[in-house]
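assembly run, all chains below
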Amino acid sequence: MIQRPRGTADRLPDVAPAWRLVSEAFQRQCELRGFSPISTPTIERTELFTRTTGDATDLAQKEMYSFQDRGGDSLTLRSEGTAPVVRAYVQNGLHNLPQPVKLYYITSIFRYDRPQAGRYREHHQIGAEALGDASPAVDAEVIDLLWSTYRALGISDLRLELNSLGDPDTRPAYRQALVDYFTPLADHLDSESRDRLTINPLRVLDSKNPAVADLGERAPRSLDFIGEPARTHFDALQGLLQALEIPFAINHRLVRGLDYYNRTVFEFVPPDAGSQSTVGGGGRYDYLAELIGADHVPGVGFGSGIERVLLNMERCGTSAVDSQSIEVYVAPLADGAVADAMRLTRQLRHTGITVECGFRGASPRSHLRRASRSQARAAVLIGAREMERGVVSLKPLDGAAQIEVPRADAVNCIQAVLTDES
RNA sequence: GUGGGCGUAGCUCAAUCGGUUAGAGCGUCUGGUUGUGGCCCAGAAGGCUGGGGGUUCAAGUCCCCUCGCUCACCCCA
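ok done. output:
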């Protein structure tokens, strides 16, 4: 049998309430802050991702779903949320709107990787980007948005980790300092880290190999190399987070996996930090627009994996209830009654009642069993006896007595029964 | 890309040392009542034992390959 592609998931109805809870909570927090929804294509030109995330990143090197279309263009399934939004901002001239332009999205992300707990080839992210304003207050608002969303979902124990990578003019010096520090220690590094040392030295810092991580702790710190403007920015951000009473911790080893970040980077991680534990993260990317050939546009944003948010909700005991349920079940007792059953069903739905209609003439027993299982509060029976006399039988399913009502008054009577009970 | 564990009904699981027609619970459908639900009882449907090859008189069981799931590494959300 043809099965779903590896690392993808069918989302069945039983998980819909939890997903709805997440998306509605996030949308609510976005709207409270004046963020507007945006959606971009599932496919983008491959260069959009390679030029922004960085050639040396794992994402660009081995995780992209890329293909050639029939015209010969190389396209890639969205592997990351930020670059497409920046592209859309520039391409659609959103710099003509009052700045910053604040946008959010709920979308799927594709990365070719071995699936495991909390990691998929297609996963979903809630994300937000604020473009066109370099102020640290925007960083704070974006972090506040994500933090508030987690809180609204009952997740209150995530640790916010923070760091600053400075600006491009100070990056080479820091990079060189790391090379100078790690090179004599190369014997103590794993082969992966040795490779990174030449390609992308910053990445050595966030190795999870305990021995390497230990060396990383004593490595030169980004904050000692950043310039005065970045320092001022970072100090201001910390002050704002304190004013907003959002607890955070500085992590000198936090560098993030994508190359386009500058100044602020942050991650939310659970207290029992496993290996792929990051629930959400982001940062500032003031030079991303230039990487795709546009004018300078400062920006800051984040992405957070919905599947991981759900894992953390479960861990914190947040549960979602299914709000929609059938109120009335209409049961045709003979095939000749199906047409009128469907007509009554539509009349009821027209008044806003949630109705399920049995599709075949069958025994009352069979229909009522279905009605019970559907959680309906009342059943309406239409059989030969009812049709002869122009009535329907109305049976509350809580044990109250069954009554016959004129077909013409059926809708009103059913409404009355539903309101009496509630 | 690397390593471990696991694949039997829709779901959770049995099946002795390799030995008859692969079973049970839950779920589904039907009946127990010629027109009355939940509980109870009965019956039915539902399996290429993931797929292919091999060993054997005989394979769900042993061997090889393959696919899938899963956990971890790597990395990310």
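The longest strand of chain A covers residues 101-110.

Residues 16-32 of chain A form the longest helix (17 residues).

not gonna interpret more than that til we talk
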